[in-house]
Amino acid sequence: MPVITYREALNQALREEMARDDRVFLMGEEVAVYQGAYKVSKGLLQEFGEMRVVDTPITELGFAGVGVGAAMVGLRPIIEFMTWNFALLALDQVVNAAAKMLYMTSGQFNMPMVFRGPNGAALQLAAQHSQAWESWLAHIPGLKVVVPATPYDAKGLLKAAIRDDNPVCFLEGEMLYNTKGEVPEEEYVIPIGKAEVKREGDHVTLISHGKMVLTALQAADTLAKEGIRCEVLDLRTVRPMDVEAITASVRKTNRAVVVEEGWEVCGVGAQVVDYVQRTCFDYLDAPVLRVHQVDAPMPYAKNLEKAAKPDVPKTIAAVKQVLYLD
Amino acid sequence: MSTTKSSKRRAAASATAADADAKAVASDNAASSPEERRALHRELLHSMLLQRRFEERTAEMYAIGRIGGFCHLYIGQEAVSTGFISLLRPDDYVITTYRDHGQALARGMTPRAIMAELFGRVDGCVGGKGGSMHLFDKSLGFLGGHGIVGGHIPIAAGVGFAIKYRGGDQVIVCFMGEAAVNNGAFHEALNMAALWKLPCLFVIENNRYGMGTAVERASAINDIYKRGASYDMPREMVDGQDVFAVRDAAERAIARARTESTPTLLEIRTYRFMGHSMSDAVSGTYRTKEELEQYLKRDPISLLRARMEADGDLTEDDWNAMDDEIKAVVQDSIDFAENSPEPPLEALMQDVLVDTTSD
Prior knowledge:
The complex is a heterodimer.
Chain A: E1 3-5, H1 6-20, E2 24-28, H2 44-48, E3 53-55, H3 60-72, E4 76-80, H4 84-87, H5 91-98, H6 101-104, E5 114-119, H7 134-138, E6 144-146, H8 151-163, E7 168-173, E8 180-182, E9 196-199, E10 204-208, H9 212-224, E11 230-234, E12 237-239, H10 243-253, E13 256-259, H11 268-279, E14 289-291, H12 302-308, H13 312-322
Helix pairs in contact in A: 1-8, 3-5, 9-13, 10-11
Chain B: H1 5-15, H2 34-63, H3 78-85, E1 93-96, H4 101-106, H5 111-118, E2 142-145, H6 152-166, E3 172-177, H7 184-195, E4 200-206, E5 209-210, E6 213-214, H8 215-218, E7 235-239, H9 243-260, E8 264-269, H10 289-296, H11 300-310, H12 316-339
Parallel strand pairs in B: 1-2, 1-3, 3-4, 4-8, 7-8
Antiparallel strand pairs in B: 5-6
Helix pairs in contact in B: 2-3, 2-11, 2-12, 3-9, 5-12, 6-7
């Protein structure tokens, strides 16, 4: 099976879906002539032309709204945010327009569109460029929120997002674009809303999504050397969340740690813990712990940034705590 | 630059609109024979009077608690909705703000569907889920009914983009209040519409007040149409109390959008005869009774009626017959809304997401 990067996997998904359906177009900053700020859209302008691969001014609210309008009359826009940090300017369109249109119109206007781009912190980009937005977006009924961790998932889920008749927020990872993985040549689509066990284990469940799945897997590798068998559950989609998969895994392991990139308060992990206490109350052998960014904006200095982020040692410490090994 | 001499003249006239009598009426457009003229003018009058009578009863229904929430009346501005929408094709699009009853009626949404929506009933145009601010009808290309000031303007640009993407020759008319032009969404949308040459009409209904803030207290430029210069966009200022002046300008802008795929910015000087919403007293703290009375002299319906009477196209009996017919239609919409059931509780969780497949 070919091994390709996460970036290439996304590029394949875009190319295949644009070839499949001429209502699909890609719009955003630097997606066309520049070939994508992170080269995700490389070659698409040459293949599909400037009507379908559209460079915009730096005007997130404006072009997100253009996507909403185009979706209202039957096109299937893919709106690229250079990063989700900039999407904050566009939230009125994402939340007030895209997410609510179907409901406000009693089903007359659905929004078959994707908002996508890199999410979360990279390296030393400081406070305004280092934020994980999935908990904000997942709060909103009417949206789907997809956060793929691997090239395989990135491709299969982006194809599903583009084919979905609802607005889908698709959160990639700047630090994931160069990661590699096996991606088959034949076509496949991964259903939105299904978690996946990325590693089996029976001592504790690590529940994660996006970039932090890699952190969880690394922690599990290290812990395996000490005889601790971690199950790593990749949510893949945080809205809708696969509660069945969470329940099944935690009922098996009786312990859980949630690892996420964002802040603690009202984070994705808080929702996971809520589901766990409702569905696994009698199965739990320890309180569920969470690993996340510290409750402060992201600092620039390398040592402070490292201290702010969730990482493998913090995850290992949390696992040992729920196993009462400390 | 499309600011023509005649529109400048009209703009000058409308700048002192409050001082003028009910005499200024612009050209008689698009009617070639007296019969056609009469039919067209009756159609315009009917459209405007329907909006007026519908909203008079809406206010009454609000007062007795049949209608809840926010409710913004359009009374005084009817020549704007009718002027533009009367020139559209069925496959064109209309998008507007939360002050949307007038445009919805002008576009052909039935009084029943609107009144039932205002009542929060299942037979409303969106099943009781939208209310006054969120009227929609896909079959009429009526794209809402949007509640965030300025939020719908980029959406209009997106509809224009889709028209161009498909190679169609439809247009979209985007109505907004003058206060929206101070909002970033306005500028972002106009820039893209001009940059990409999208078939959009951006129609600013300058009714002088953004809620209670006069235009002079909110905008650095009081001739709002001049903002089009920032985007090198054709622009005009128009007397919004004169339906013929509105139609003249609309016709030019529609042609420009349809045949040249070029957007236009239109500032329509009008006036809201009622408060901002139902919680705002008619004259309020922000405008004087005298000012309101001056503007009431240029009621768009009275102007059109006077013109038709002068042309011999409308007798008092004709007027009374039309008015009676419209009042009966509005009463019927109230009866219909009263008898329409509340939405079933199952509707609560319906249409959050559409069933979808990725196959």
